[in-house]
Amino acid sequence: MRWRDNSKGSKAMNEGHEAVRQRLDELGRLIEERRKALEHHELVSEELRGEWDDMLRRHQELCRRSQSQESTAAAARETLEEDIDVLRHAFFRWAARVDERFNKPGGSST
């Protein structure tokens, strides 16, 4: 019986895992930058803070999943990537909604 060399598959899996971690890190930076900008301009209402906290919880959960063994399987990593896409989309929609709210004449955080 001959053993197959799985080093290429393992390397590709590690690269895929690293790409997922990089996407999560980038998303985390975007979320944090927006939070700081809103707090700097004192535009954080309770509603926005609640939505913000929810996004942060979801981001932390994705980070936990990324670091766990469950993300090493191809199917689990694919699901994780889809969940990252969903959170990115939700974040950008939220950011656009916030921008629209505060760019209106007479706009406020309430």
Describe this structure in words.
The longest helix has 34 residues. The N terminus is likely disordered. The protein is mostly helical and 110 residues long. It is 78% helix and 0% strand. Helix 1 packs antiparallel against helix 2, helix 1 runs parallel beside helix 3 and helix 2 packs antiparallel against helix 3. The relative contact order is 0.13.
Task: Describe the secondary structure blueprint for this structure.
Blueprint lengths: L6 H34 L5 H22 L6 H30 L7
Please mark out the parts with pLDDT under 50 across 5 or more consecutive residues, or reply none: 1-7
The biggest sheet amounts to: none
Tell me the number of structural domains.
1
* Spatial separation of the terminal alpha carbons: 70 Å
Overall strand count: 0
Secondary structure: helix percent:
over 70%
Task: Provide keyphrases for this structure.
3 helices, 78% helix, 110 residues, elongated, mainly alpha, single chain
